[in-house]
From TrEMBL:
It comes from the Bacteria. GO terms for molecular function: isomerase activity. Keywords: Isomerase. It comes from Carboxydichorda subterranea. This is Sugar phosphate isomerase/epimerase family protein. The lineage of its organism: Bacteria, Bacillati, Bacillota, Limnochordia, Limnochordales. The keyword Isomerase applies. Residues 24-255 form the Xylose isomerase-like TIM barrel domain. InterPro entries: IolE/XylAMocC-like, Xyl_isomerase-like_sf, Xyl_isomerase-like_TIM-brl. It holds the Pfam family AP_endonuc_2. Transmembrane segments: none annotated.
Amino acid sequence: MWKYGVHPFLWTVRLDQEVEKVAARAKQLGFDSIDFPLNFPEWIDIPRARRAFQQEGLECTVVAGLSRQENLVDPDPAVRRRGVERLKEMIDIAHQLGAPVLSGVLYCAWGYIPGRGRTADEWRWSVEGLQQAADHAQQAGVTLGLEPVNRFETYFLNTTEDGLKLLADVGKPNVKLLLDTFHINIEERSYVEPFRMAAGKLAHVHACENDRGTPGSGHVDWAGVMRVLKATGYQGHIVIESFVPETPAIARETAIWRKIAPSGDFIAGEGLRYLKALEQVVLAEPA
């Protein structure tokens, strides 16, 4: 029923040189798609990536975030304009890759924490920028998935409730949510209720254990999440998005300093086996 994807940073950040190896390994492990990151533009080769994914019969989604220089909520209008232009560039890349979804921290700069709560002006600026990006995405056939993330990564959007408010104010049918079980574990009071709240407005799912390790190894209520996805008719991708200290550039960004699993291969392979086995159980349950 669901398509399972994997984040390539489990193996490498060099998606210019090693994208073929990533695609081959993902296919070998049984994944349906790659969640292609745009964190390091200097280390990606879009035509090469598309060829690699097509050769392995893999679908593609795209995940990204804005930087401080491209912040949709910056007081400087020039910075906000750069944010909109960067979102349009990301949308164009998603279109080139044949990706139906571009998701992530698209509403402000990822990692920007000014030491206070968001302001009404910042909310308005984000809405305005996302509306412009959504119009461009509509023409490209791309859906935007806005990801609420934990308070240590943004001050702007932490909960599903606030995410739905942002969707309502943006008011574009191709702007939806990405929900991530790692962030839900920190910010929500239930694993299940956020998915129920987001019914019909969910573009993408990131499957991470509570310690950002292997799905099934911690205390995330995976069965509850899958039951809600089944009941609400979700048919998108479920992506294992975890990271390992063996990729230092990502370890620094995500604060992965200790070994949470034997390897990236272990997280991907064991996590996928667990999720697929649980899916069969959940789908066999009476409605």
